[in-house]
């Protein structure tokens, strides 16, 4: 090849792309000009058409209102979402939190050298750190070994000063009485010395026994060891809640009552920041945990991942609608666009009414996307508006039964799903008008007559029989499927849970169960006797599950069994108010006995709680007692959810069936829909039982979630078969594929509960399609023959044979 030919070939290689680039640039210019001129064109069109002008004004107004509401939107993923609101157990816990503060943030500090954290400069640094924690916003009180020792040392010094003052007063009194009696100065001085000696004889032995380690100061290791550690070398039982072992200490930062998620997260961040800047010496390891820390981590992770998961879900659903040639190209974005608009309007409503969005809404709002795209798809493919509106109302009603849940998290999700589905349906009904094709046929338009002979093929009958067997097993196994409703279950997969487990192993507990005594004076002799009996009963009967933390009897072990009012009052004067405030209110009307428990075994905790309630001695006349605490409230929520599991599953199916029976012209379609939902729900429960999967407060209502989809599929498929509309019949597999892809996006979540929920929803959608198809196959019309298909009503939009084959192939 000559050099000229090579140059010519190279020039052709370069000029070819350049020639193709020119039209592309010109096309982009034309598109930009159209985009820039679109508003002006819309205004000109609106001037010529007043109806269109009204539509433009309405859309702009909705856009402004929606953006304004989203700007006011707040999230609240606090602890209250996981606890049963309105239940007596929750009210008791709220009262306890008002008196003594909420469940604490636990700061665990460890070292390899025994007792090193309670020596010299480290102990002083610990005291300063605890003081810094106490000054953080939203802190009710702080309990730690540094402040505890400092308070005891100060109270002991005050006691010594008081005794010294009383000794001097005795000397002065004796000397003055002698002088008043006419004694000489020598005799008066001798009387003063005798009075001082008598005082020393009365209290010297007591002081020697009470202060065997010398001066009560933090710089005196003997004093620290005597106060904190017992004869066995380990920490005394009454101090184990702040000194779990010789190599570790714990600081409890109790927040104020009713702390929301953002404030809890700020408190945890403040604790971490102060801990990082503190100098506790070399070789120390610090862990920040506790329920507020776990909830804050769960809130942060959920809020951060929700936009990512939502974006993935939108991309997956959008790809499904774009890649499948199910309608004209410009209409394929309509289902996703209208559903996203409905989601935005739903969230805007929360913003305008000033109600924060809870964890359930933040984490699972993509469920609306998976279902909301159904309705514009149905409408564009020829479903009657009455059918679409009826199935949407049935779905919203089914979701609305989640309001029966005792947990605010589930109730908020039910309200949001119901509102989102209804808005998505209403916007979806306008889809043909948005695309310029409002020629949706009414239900009176029918295609060729269909044969009503059931097509009872062997595979359909066999498949339906297998589903009936699996569904029956699933419904029967529902009461035996394990269920968990605690915070740790929601946060599974986060590092905060691993940190909580480590703290639990070192401290011996991860929560507090409290026995509360209320009455006129909880430090009266009879009230204190009852507390001793209650403490002994708890340790004797449930010592493995209940670990004593702190209580009035534990702080006053030196009092005798028959202590008088005066002796009790004197004993309380020996303790600093800082310490008594952990177990007594200022008016002494409430006393609390705290026990450490492990949250990982709720069944064991339930046994301990029930046994303790039955075995506690009756309180003194005029007093009342209760067993409360965050673990008790969480356990109560789990019990309420578990007890309502059958109602939670059946209610959604029944509610959807009733709406369909009222809204549809053919009542038999409603019956078929209910049967399909029952089979799909039962089969899903069978898979949960067979795989050993635990239920959550969300998936325990699988019937409501499955009924919403199963009823829709059955009704739409029945209408498509009856009216002979092949496009509408293919809409169900299309939206099934879109939903599965959307829910599959939840598998990318960090939280195990979100991944599990997404997987179960995807399986529920597939089961709903399968059950609806088999039920209709056995009981309904047979599939259309080619002759009947050609005689059916023409599709709503022209479609090529290639497009038809693509829909059939993909769906």
Write up what this structure looks like:
This protein has 811 residues and is α+β, with helices and mostly antiparallel strands. It folds into four domains: 3-71; 92-293, no CATH class; 295-484 and 643-810, no CATH class; 490-639, no CATH class. It contains 32 helices and eight strands. It has helices spanning 3-48, 50-71, 88-100, 120-134, 145-180, 185-210, 221-228, 261-277, 291-323, 334-353, 359-364, 366-372, 374-380, 385-400, 408-429, 431-434, 458-477, 487-490, 495-507, 525-542, 552-555, 565-574, 577-580, 602-615, 630-643, 645-663, 667-690, 702-723, 726-744, 752-779, 786-791, 801-810, and strands spanning 105-110, 139-143, 248-255, 285-289, 511-518, 547-550, 590-597, 624-628. It has a four-stranded antiparallel sheet with strand order 2-3-1-4, sandwiched between helices. Strands 6-7-5-8 form a four-stranded antiparallel sheet, with helices on both faces. Helix 4 (120-134) packs across helix 5, helix 12 (366-372) packs parallel to helix 15 and helix 29 (726-744) runs antiparallel to helix 30. The longest helix is centred in the N-terminal third of the chain and has 46 residues, at 3-48. The chain is elongated. The model is unreliable at 31-39, 441-455 and 781-811 (pLDDT under 50).
């Amino acid at each position: 090849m000559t050099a000229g030919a090579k140059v010519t070939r190279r020039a052709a290689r370069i000029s070819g792309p350049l020639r193709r680039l020119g039209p592309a640039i010109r096309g982009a210019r034309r598109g930009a000009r159209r985009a820039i001129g679109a508003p002006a064109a819309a205004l000109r069109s609106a001037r010529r058409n007043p109806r269109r002008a009204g539509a433009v004004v309405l859309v702009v107004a909705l856009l402004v209102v929606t953006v304004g509401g989203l700007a006011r939107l707040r999230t609240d993923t606090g602890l209250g979402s996981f606890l049963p609101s309105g239940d007596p157990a929750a009210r008791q816990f709220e009262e306890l939190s008002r008196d003594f503060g909420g469940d604490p943030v636990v700061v665990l500090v460890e070292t390899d050298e025994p007792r090193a954290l309670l020596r010299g400069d480290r102990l002083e640094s610990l005291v300063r750190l605890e003081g810094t924690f106490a000054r953080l916003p939203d802190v009710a009180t702080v309990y730690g070994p540094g402040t505890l020792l400092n308070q005891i040392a100060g109270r002991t010094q005050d006691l010594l000063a008081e005794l010294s003052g009383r000794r001097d007063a005795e000397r002065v009194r004796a000397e003055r009485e002698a002088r008043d009696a006419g004694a000489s100065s020598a005799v008066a001085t001798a009387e003063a010395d005798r009075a001082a000696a008598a005082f020393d004889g009365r209290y010297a032995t007591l002081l020697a026994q009470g202060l065997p380690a010398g001066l009560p100061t933090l710089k005196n290791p003997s004093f620290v060891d005597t106060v904190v550690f017992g004869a066995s070398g380990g920490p005394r039982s009454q101090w184990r809640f702040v000194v779990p072992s010789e190599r570790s200490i714990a600081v409890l930062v109790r927040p104020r009552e009713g702390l929301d998620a953002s404030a809890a997260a700020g408190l945890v961040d403040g604790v971490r920041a102060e801990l990082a800047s503190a100098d506790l010496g070399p070789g120390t390891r610090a862990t920040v945990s506790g329920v507020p820390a776990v909830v804050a981590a769960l809130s942060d992770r959920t809020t951060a991942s929700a936009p990512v998961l939502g974006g993935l879900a939108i991309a997956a659903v959008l790809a499904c609608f774009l890649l499948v040639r199910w309608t004209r190209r410009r209409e394929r974005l309509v289902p996703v666009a209208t559903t996203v608009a409905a989601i935005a309007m739903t969230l805007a409503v929360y913003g305008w009414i000033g109600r924060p969005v809870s964890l359930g809404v933040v984490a699972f709002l993509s469920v609306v996307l998976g279902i909301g795209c159904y309705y514009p798809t149905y409408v564009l493919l020829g479903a009657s508006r009455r059918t679409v509106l009826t199935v949407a109302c049935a779905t919203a009603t089914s979701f609305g039964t989640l309001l029966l849940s005792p947990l605010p998290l589930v109730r908020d999700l039910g309200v949001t799903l119901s509102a989102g589905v209804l808005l998505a349906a209403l916007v979806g009904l306008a889809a043909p008008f948005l695309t310029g094709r409002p020629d949706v046929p009414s239900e009176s338009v029918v295609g060729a007559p269909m044969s009503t002979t059931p097509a009872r093929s062997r595979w359909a009958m066999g498949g339906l029989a297998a589903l009936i067997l699996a569904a029956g097993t699933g419904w029967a196994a529902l009461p035996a499927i394990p269920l968990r409703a605690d915070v740790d279950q929601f946060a599974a997969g986060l590092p905060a849970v691993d940190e909580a487990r480590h703290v639990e192993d070192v401290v011996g507990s991860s929560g507090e169960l409290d026995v509360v005594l209320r009455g006129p004076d909880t430090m009266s002799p009879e009230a204190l006797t009852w507390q001793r009996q209650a403490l002994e009963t708890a340790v004797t009967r449930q010592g493995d599950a209940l670990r004593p933390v702190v209580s009035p009897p534990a702080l006053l072990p030196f009092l005798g069994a028959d202590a008088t009012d005066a002796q009790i009052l004197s004993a309380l004067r020996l303790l600093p108010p800082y310490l008594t405030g952990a177990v007594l209110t200022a008016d002494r009307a409430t006393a609390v006995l705290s026990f450490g428990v492990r949250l990982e075994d709720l069944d064991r905790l339930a046994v301990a709680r029930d046994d303790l309630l039955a075995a506690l001695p009756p309180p003194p006349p005029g007093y009342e007692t209760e067993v409360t605490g965050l673990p008790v409230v969480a356990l109560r929520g789990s019990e309420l959810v578990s007890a309502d599991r059958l109602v939670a599953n059946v209610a959604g199916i029944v509610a959807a069936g009733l709406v369909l029976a009222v809204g549809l012209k053919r009542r038999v379609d409603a019956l078929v829909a209910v049967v399909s939902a029952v089979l799909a729900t039962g089969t899903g429960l069978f898979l949960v039982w067979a795989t050993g999967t635990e239920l959550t407060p969300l998936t325990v209502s699988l019937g409501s979630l499955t009924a919403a989809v199963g009823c829709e599929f059955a009704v739409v498929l029945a209408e498509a078969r009856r009216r002979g509309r092949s496009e509408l019949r293919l809409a169900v597999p299309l939206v099934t594929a879109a939903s599965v892809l959307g829910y599959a996006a939840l598998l990318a979540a960090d939280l195990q509960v979100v991944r599990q929920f997404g997987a179960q929803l995807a399986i529920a959608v597939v089961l709903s399609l399968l059950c609806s198809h088999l039920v209709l196959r056995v009981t309904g019309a047979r599939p259309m023959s080619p002759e009947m298909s050609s005689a059916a009503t023409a599709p709503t939009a022209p479609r090529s044979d290639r497009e038809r084959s693509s829909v059939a192939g993909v769906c």
